Amino acid sequence: MILDEVALTFVPNLGTRGISYLTDIYEDASAIYGATEHHLACVAELRRDIITHITQRVGYSEAERELRYCEQHNIGVTSYHDNLYPPLLREVADRPHILYSMGDIGVLQSKHILSVVGTRRISTYGQSVCIRLLTELAEMFPDLVVVSGLAFGVDATAHHSAISAGVRTVAIVPSKLPEVTPTQHSRLAKEIVDEGGAIISELNSQSKQNGAYYIPRNRIIAGVAEGLWVVESPANGGSLSTAKAADGYSRTVVATPGRITDSRSEGTNHLIKTNVAQLITSARDIASALGWKEVGA
Questions:
Q1: How far is CA 15 from the centre of its chain?
Q2: What pTM was estimated for this model as a whole?
């Protein structure tokens, strides 16, 4: 039951990795809540405080409240055990157990998913490259899904480019739904959903918005796709954390080279120089790096 799955995320001190650990042992959340204290202690080897929380069914009142909120705001709730859960994200050890969504989360079942990230201060060069390569890639793979984070700069360009090219796009946001961050992109978020894509967050409505969710959000962007394209990034850009996560998940990372005098390309050039990312200059380069075969090619 989805109530059990959501309740698990409200168990104090369990955390994302703790839930992933338990789901590797038990069939589902109902089995976890139904386990005896002895089994939780001797087989799952949980701490005493967490065992107490589970056996006392802590988290159920919060989960009931959450499901009412989601129904009221037309927010989808997808657990790790749901068939609609993104298949590539299942492989990730620190995956979120619950995903909240607006739109069609099922688009992440596509065989051709590319995450696109980069600087918020996108240059004219970065913008033109992002638009051109995503347009070409969409022509090659009509089922292409472009994933990004709805931020200013590269993210927004990637979402707009996908919509203009007639393919679906997904935004992973660091905010509880139906709110989006930044609020200036509320119209873009609506367009993403209207055009068959989705807005997704791991945060429930009871999460405190304190600006701490950007880096954790990046692991989801990295985890849902086969590959990650870093379009432009300064030496300390936040998108480099996404590249690090993608590399750690054995995803293919590609990057666009830039001028050595341009600070907005220092990060991407470094990814290429250190062999974290493959250098790409065309949509065919991206497809080749990911092993995608164009139909009829």
A1: 18
A2: 0.94
